[in-house]
Amino acid sequence: MSWAGPDNFPATSLADNLDKKLLVILRDGRKIIGILRSFDQFANVVLEGALERITVGELYCDLPLGLYIIRGENVVLIGELDLEREELPSFMVRVSATEIKQAQKAEKDATELKGTMRKRMEFLDLD
């Protein structure tokens, strides 16, 4: 990602990023990629050609969203993507939407099982 605006100073306004490809990370953890077309003083943004990038381990999928409006209160981070660099490491494998949803479910189930097992083991007090 490139943070430098004119004269290598960091960009201080979203206006510097109009018509550029951005990554927006939302409060719920989703990652949205698209071209910034508009914004307002509340950091509400409009992305054109937006897609949601879902990653699970070494798997990823890009779900097309089209024209996408994001309410500013849901934005955690906005960053410009460097078009000269490869967006993903070479070991990442692109899969279908169905496969990534299955991988997400399996990951969620494993996390819940781990939490359940931890609660069951608390009574042992292994310290």
From TrEMBL:
GO terms for cellular component: Lsm1-7-Pat1 complex; P-body; ribonucleoprotein complex. PANTHER family: LSM1, U6 SNRNA-ASSOCIATED SM-LIKE PROTEIN LSM1. The keyword Secreted does not apply. GO terms for biological process: cold acclimation; deadenylation-dependent decapping of nuclear-transcribed mRNA; hyperosmotic salinity response; mRNA processing. Residues 9-84 form the Sm domain. Gene3D superfamilies: 2.30.30.100. Component of the cytoplasmic LSM1-LSM7 complex which is involved in mRNA degradation by promoting decapping and leading to accurate 5'-3' mRNA decay. LSM1A and LSM1B are essential for the formation of the cytoplasmic LSM1-LSM7 complex which regulates developmental gene expression by the decapping of specific development-related transcripts. Required for P-body formation during heat stress. It is found in: Cytoplasm; Cytoplasm, P-body. InterPro entries: Lsm1, LSM_dom_sf, PTHR15588, Sm, Sm_dom_euk/arc. This is U6 snRNA-associated Sm-like protein LSm1. Keywords: Cytoplasm, mRNA processing, Ribonucleoprotein, RNA-binding. It comes from the Eukaryota. It comes from Ceratodon purpureus (Fire moss). It holds the Pfam family LSM. Belongs to the snRNP Sm proteins family. GO terms for molecular function: mRNA binding. SUPFAM superfamilies: Sm-like ribonucleoproteins. The keyword Ribonucleoprotein applies. Component of the heptameric LSM1-LSM7 complex that forms a seven-membered ring structure with a donut shape.
